[in-house]
């Protein structure tokens, strides 16, 4: 961790009456990285990020953004872009008016037409927000978040409701912003996006941070699997394989290459065809499910 993180959360607690939503949460986000904070509904990630974004007061603990309290609007807001799940723009404003309004409110400057081009809303510049489709509104949310190329960008479920082409354009824009030095905090239920895009991931459950690290570090803790089926008259497969149904077997392993070679050598020696052979590396989905199955405190 660097001495000057963009975000520094230390022992954060958020309570709603008797409900303890966030419990002693600590993490840092480094300059230029894409950090994904993930968790099931009710895990506490939204409450935590609302404090980091300056929208909610912490019950206890310390949060710093660019070295300042997130409630120090003058110091933090011009440097921060936020894409909420629903931004709630006025339906009576046009697309371009909405973008300009955010610019005035945040103190950032940019060329509106250029920003709309990035999200393919140029033709909708004079269209009222109330007349936009759901996907178009989502692209407008993104446009206002990245207006002025802020140093820190929060993306809350950014690709929900977007078609494939719009998703690709959004991530291309995020990559360009990162190349220019922006730091990104992502929350999403599309785990494949986090796996592909995030430098580091924090997994929350029941208000606590259960695991944190790179995708490689998180997936390394769980075994990969090799699956295959055997003909009815085949010999018994290697002892470390376990039948899952009928003639289908699964090998769970932390050494995929070595165990796959051993299996193939055995099959060659036995003149056995391995039907439906597949080797599946551990994915973020597997880690997410493992965290979800942990006993609650």
Polypeptide structure, described:
It contains ten helices and 13 strands. It has 297 residues and is of the alpha/beta class. The strands form three sheets. Strands 5-6-7-3-8-9 form a six-stranded mixed sheet. It has a four-stranded antiparallel sheet with strand order 11-12-10-13. The protein has a three-stranded antiparallel sheet with strand order 2-1-4, with helices on one face. The longest helix has 16 residues, at 164-179. It is elongated and about 75 Å long. The mean pLDDT is 91.
Instruction: Please trace the helix and strand order, writing H or E for each element.
Output: EEEHEHEHHHEHEHEEHEEEHEH
Rg value:
24 Å
What oligomerization state is this entry in?
A: single chain
Strand order in the largest sheet: 5-6-7-3-8-9
Structural class: alpha/beta
Number of strands: 13
């Amino acid at each position: 961790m660097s001495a000057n993180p963009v975000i520094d959360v230390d022992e954060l607690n958020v309570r709603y009456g008797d409900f303890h939503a966030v419990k002693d949460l600590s993490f840092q986000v480094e300059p230029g990285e894409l950090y994904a904070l993930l968790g099931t509904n009710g895990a506490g990630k939204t409450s935590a990020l609302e404090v980091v974004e300056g929208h909610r007061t912490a019950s206890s603990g310390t949060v710093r953004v660019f070295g300042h309290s997130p409630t120090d609007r003058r110091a933090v807001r011009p440097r921060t872009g936020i894409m909420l799940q629903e931004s709630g723009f006025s339906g009576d404003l046009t697309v371009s008016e909405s973008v300009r309004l955010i610019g005035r409110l945040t103190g950032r400057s940019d060329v509106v037409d250029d920003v709309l081009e990035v999200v393919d809303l140029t033709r909708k510049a004079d269209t009222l927000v109330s007349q936009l489709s759901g996907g178009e509104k989502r692209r407008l949310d993104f446009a206002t978040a990245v207006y002025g190329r802020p140093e820190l960008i929060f993306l809350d479920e950014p690709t929900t409701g977007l078609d494939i082409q719009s998703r690709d354009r959004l991530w291309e824009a995020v990559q360009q912003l990162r190349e220019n030095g922006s730091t990104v905090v992502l929350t999403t239920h599309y785990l494949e996006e986090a796996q592909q895009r995030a430098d580091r991931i924090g997994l929350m459950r029941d208000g606590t941070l259960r695991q944190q690290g790179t995708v490689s570090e998180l997936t390394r803790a769980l075994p990969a699997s090799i699956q295959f089926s055997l003909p009815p008259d085949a010999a018994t497969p290697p002892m470390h394989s376990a039948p899952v149904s009928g003639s289908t077997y699964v090998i769970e392993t932390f050494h995929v290459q070595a165990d796959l070679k051993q299996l193939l050598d055995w099959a060659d020696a036995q003149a056995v065809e391995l039907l439906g052979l597949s080797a599946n590396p551990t994915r973020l989905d597997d880690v997410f499910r493992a965290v979800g199955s942990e006993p609650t405190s």
